[in-house]
Amino acid sequence: MISTSPNLLYLKAAWAAHASISAEHCKQSYDDAGITFERVNHSWIVRKDNTLVSTMPLRYTRHELRMGFLGRIELEARKAAAEMEGGLLRDLRLPENHGMIVELEEAMRHLRRRGSRALTILVGPSVLTATAEQLYAEVRVFLDAPRACLYAHRRGTGLLANASKRQRHPRAGTYGELASQVAATINQAFSEAFLTEAA
């Protein structure tokens, strides 16, 4: 059975492997990058610091290897995004007429093209009207490990000014746990915004 949870050990190793032969490291040797190859029949098993990160044909280019890393990373990143979205849908208590948008396909395009590690999730009013309560939140989820950055505001006023750094930049053991932390912080910020308005 295929796991629906992302393989976090793989994600960490694959992102490290990709980074070790990209950008300023594009000319670094595979040995210096900590990448090793083992021939098995008609393919190469590729490891980064003893973690399997890819399988390649006998003939390949460095670019194809990088793209191979990103292809498998995308599969795991989609699982991470699904786990995050499911947790937020379960735990977020949104005001009436507010919804959530997960910019998954845009994030996956940026991942494939530039190796971007971020996924944006937006929370806000479903319909903009002059009288509607307008609370906004943005969650920047990182797809290399369960961590995020949170922003929330109402009428241009930040709602997380009194939140701790741990609340604004949460880390967790899984993306499901991260979603629970993010939802708790947003729920509290939105709730306090309503209390302030009532006062």
Share of β-strand residues: 25-35%
Q: Helicity level, as a percent range?
A: 40-55%
Give the biggest beta sheet: 5 strands, antiparallel
pLDDT averaged residue by residue = 92
Q: What is the string of SSEs from the N terminus onward?
A: HHEEEHEHEEEEHH
Number of strands: 8
Number of helical segments? 6
How far from one another are the termini? 54 Å
Layout: helices, strands, pairs:
Blueprint: H1 8-20, H2 30-33, E1 35-40, E2 43-48, E3 51-57, H3 62-91, E4 98-102, H4 104-114, E5 118-125, E6 135-142, E7 147-154, E8 157-158, H5 165-168, H6 175-198
Antiparallel strand pairs: 1-2, 2-3, 4-5, 5-6, 6-7, 7-8
Outline of the structure:
The protein has 199 residues and is α+β, with helices and mostly antiparallel strands.
Brief descriptors of the model:
2 domains, 199 residues, 43% helix, five-stranded antiparallel sheet, alpha+beta, three-stranded antiparallel sheet
What does this structure look like?
The chain has about 200 residues and is α+β, with helices and mostly antiparallel strands. It folds into 2 domains: about 10-75, no CATH class; about 80-199. Helices cover about 45% and strands about 25% of the residues. It is built from 6 helices and 8 strands; from the N terminus they run H-H-E-E-E-H-E-H-E-E-E-E-H-H. The strands form 2 sheets. A 5-stranded antiparallel beta sheet has the order 4-5-6-7-8. A hairpin with a 2-residue loop joins strand 7 (about 145-155) and strand 8. It is elongated, with a radius of gyration of 20 Å.
